[in-house]
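Lab notebook, bench 4. We co-purified these components, and the gel suggests they stay together. Before we commit to crystallization screens, I want a quick structural picture of the whole thing.
Request: model the full complex, all chains together.
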Amino acid sequence: MTEVENVTDLGSERARLLEVDSLVKEFGVRRSLAERLARRQIDPFRAVDDVSFTLDRGEILGIAGGSGSGKTTLARCLIRLIEPDGGEVRVDGVNIRDHKGPELRELRRRMQMVFQDPYASLNPRMTVGAALHEAGKVHERPGAEDEGAFVSRLLGLVQLTDRIASRKPRELSGGQRQRVSIARALAVDPELIIADEAVSALDVSVQAQLLNLFLDLREELGVAVLFISHQLAVIAEVADRIAVMRHGRIVETGPTQEVFARPKDEYTQALLRAHPHPDPRMRFAAS
Amino acid sequence: MSLLEIESLRIEFPGEDGQLVAVKGVDLAVEAGEVLGLVGESGSGKSLTCRAVMRMVPAPGAISAGSIRFDGADVLSLDTSKLRDFRAHSVGMIYQNPFGSLNPTMRVGAQIAETLKVNRGMKRDAAKAEALALLERVGIEDPEHRYRAYPHELSGGMCQRVMIAIATASSPRLMLADEPTTALDVTTQAQILKLLARMSAEEGMAMLLVSHDFGVIAQACDRVAVMYGGHIVESGPVETIYHEPEHPYTKALLNSVPELDSAGNVQRRAALAGHPPELSDVIPGCVFAPRCEYARPGCEAVSMKLEKVGPAHDSACPVRPFADANSKAKAEGVEA
Amino acid sequence: MSATPVTPADVAGPPLARPRRGVRSRIKGWPTSVKVGGVIVGILALAALFAPLIAPYGPNEIDPFALLQSPSSQHLFGTDDAGRDVFSRALYGLRLDIVLCLLVTYVPLPFAVLVGALAGYFGGWVDTVVSRLADIMISFPFIVLVMAIVAIVGPGIEGFLIGVPIAAWALYARLARAEMLIVREQPYMMATTALGYSKTRAILKHGLPNVIRPCLVYSTIDLIGNLILLAGLSYLGFGVQPPTAELGGIIADGQGYLLTAWWIATLPGLVLVLFGVGVGLIGEGISDRGLERGER
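Here is the predicted assembly.
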């Protein structure tokens, strides 16, 4: 898999934040007793199959793919929520797979994750303020000594009022919970946010607000976003570049506009053809 | 007379401090052979409205007012055996979760055959033959082999096709589809939508299609009703609704729909502030007024009644902020 | 960026809940079963606590002229064959029962839950060891196991206090482990790894509070069971030794007089049952509350 061209043409190594190189994750296949007895060799299933890509500071890269494409497994491998079986994940040149303990924690701090399910992403027993403050405290972020100000600033970043700090997650709407999840990620000053289907479970009008938020955060804080979604149109709204995944491999990548206008891979073409356009005048051709 | 007529439907749930009203007086009609879409966000009441047609509102919710007439007959007063007959032969339903809606311990062919035996009185061999024919009709390849499969051995798309086969086995005149493609990949979704369109056309089957995804609605429906906060706020032909919306919520919703064309031109959209109302929120007058940028004094007294704003086009907004732009656009023959 | 600044309230909307409710309505929020159970248990527990003040007589005070008297205004529950006031004995007995059973149920609970949670969180050999040990303990009939330990340790309260935790921890550990297996997969737990929190913090601060509800619900059933067990052991002569007042012992003593002096066994027995019902209602209510809130 060749390296993707850097669209902004900075060319400078300093702009590169994340480099993923030939990443592999295999899952052992459960073999039936009969298969075990017959000692049949079954190839392990590769959920992530030799994936490589790069991400620059402040860039938003979309990862598109259907279920089974491996995009969520990929996201979890990047921060070693799941241990990869091969390849490298380099943050500013440092391979996260080589480290453990405090160095690993520091590397993880720089790449935070926001999950899909707003209802299960927050500890139901903790207030919002406590959860946000905890993140800052554990990583000894500057300003975390003053809980009130620290929490207030974070809530402001995600456009929530201070009233939210004393609430528990069950008192919040789905959109508000996702904002809190993003605020928790921001509490440790990350350089990259991995949004794993972060808006997929939200109402369309709320989804639009959250997409705006990601764009605002990129502009205000310079944070990069790895935006994973099965919806091409959502990726179109936020991503500078896109990588399309299928069966664990990246089949196409490039600037979003380019890939959508002139898709080279047939899977990408199929995805684009299948996309239901909201304009009734653009219906699928009757098959 | 429409095939399905819903009038002033009201569905309530018991709450901590009194009743919560989830559907607040909905009027709806589906003509024979047409596909009507119901679009809305959380708490709009679209799913409940759909289930009410079969009188399958989940407990403890209940229909507290209104009428539902199918082919002239009052559905709400049917006795048990007529209701079973109604559900078995007149109306079919398919659901969002393809795996959860099929019995995991029963082979799929048997599940289709079961409905044929019970609802169409077929004998075993005839039922099996018809089931195989149905599997083929819904586009499942190698039906002989798939007949013996269990649901977990099939993909989501195939399970959905099986569900469609079961639901259409008795040639119902109306199909209720509650988010039928939400759990599917986009390529599978396209196939299922095409299948539903084909079956609707071939069988002359009307369909009530509920979805939160306007793209799905646009692809599959002739007419659409937009729901918000338990009310229908606008309804009309799907092209009119998309190109000349009259209700501010419809317009805001359409503005929120992400578009492929945004690629390469990433920018903030004017997003609707706040979130859809909770069941427990009591909003006087127009339920959308708190979030509406065109709200003006008097909106707290609006009755949410649908008024005609064009041919077959109704809206609940008396302010009509886009009326001029829409008629100008129509006159000029371009999009508003 | 849009031209107009976005103020927070505009965009995100107000929180869902109404403003913080006062203590009164928070109590109102609990299911009826908890309230009724709470009242029953509360009254009995208070009576037991203030036994020395409420009881008209001492638990071992003998009135040789008032043997086997039926309930009267002087002796609410009548007297037994040694002339002791059964009501006073029941109060003191309940007191001892409650204290012992609370100790034996709730002191080992945190340890058992922690062991189970660790097994669920880590899996691997930790899980294997804990699960196999638990399986062994559970496979013994509970009472037989306790009695075996009592036989080793000797009759008296010590046998009960040691035997029950040894037999009971396994059930809590299993419950906690099962809950943890689910909690472990929730995104908020994964977030603790992503956020770089230590495993200790993840388990203690985030895992345990979410694992504990079913264990607490079960503990109410366990409490009743232990109460009955203690009464049973005392009845058989292995638990609390006479002449110390204890509900089971009183019932045992009254057994021989069921037809002649029914009040000795029956009335204290009713107290035992009532207490058990109260605790059971509380447990059910805690469980219902969890279900209402969408927890499992």
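The domain at 15-30+42-271 of chain A is CATH 3.40.50.300 (Rossmann fold). Worth comparing against the SEC data before the next meeting. Confidence is low (pLDDT under 50) at residues 1-10 of chain A.
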